[in-house]
Design a protein that fits this description.
The chain is mainly α and 167 residues long. Helices cover 44% and strands 10% of the residues. The strands form two sheets. The protein has a two-stranded antiparallel ribbon. Strands 2-3 form a two-stranded antiparallel sheet. A hairpin with a 3-residue loop joins β2 and β3. The chain is globular.
């Protein structure tokens, strides 16, 4: 059995078509700009093995105050800052409080917001989040609305931006 979006595409093709084509980004110049910034990324924390999708949903709390890290399909070698990006995007897009983000940064010993590449890291993560969700376009009206919200706000600058809903 395939993923839910693939199953929906096979079982309800005319329903998916009735939704119309997925929305397009308002500007391709931002994509080009992002692509040109990637080769210039440097790491203040160094490079090493990273999880690649390090967020609270991939950490299970076990009895005895033990933590279990799951979902290793994006593990690779890269800038150590990359594993801090999901929490910053959660702060920026999903309503993590100032206090919670500062507590996280303090415990980690580094605040990603001081990185000269913070904008590139955020743009890459948010682009990945939008393209991942696009796979499910046409499966529900509420999901399509969220996709439109994300595409319409993806290039917003600043520490806080349009709130996205978790999916």
């Amino acid at each position: 059995m395939g993923c839910r979006s693939c199953s929906a595409a096979v079982s309800r093709p005319d329903e998916r078509r009735s939704q119309g084509p997925p929305p397009r980004s308002c500007s391709s110049s931002n994509d080009t700009s992002l692509e040109s910034r990637v080769p210039d990324l440097t790491s203040e924390l160094g490079t090493g093995v990273i999880h690649g999708d390090m967020h609270y949903g991939n950490v299970m709390c076990l009895p005895g105050r033990r933590l279990l890290l799951i979902d290793f399909d994006q593990i690779c070698r890269g800038p150590l800052e990359w594993d801090l990006v999901p929490n910053l995007v959660t702060f920026r897009r999903f309503g993590m409080s100032d206090e919670a983000y500062e507590e996280f940064s303090s415990a980690y010993g580094y605040d990603l917001r001081v990185s000269p590449h913070v904008g590139t890291f955020i743009a890459l993560r948010e682009l990945g989040m939008v393209t991942w969700l696009l796979q499910q376009y046409g499966t529900s009206a509420s999901l399509d609305e969220e996709i439109r919200r994300r595409i319409g706000s993806i290039n917003e600058p600043g520490a806080r931006a349009t709130t996205w809903r978790a999916r």
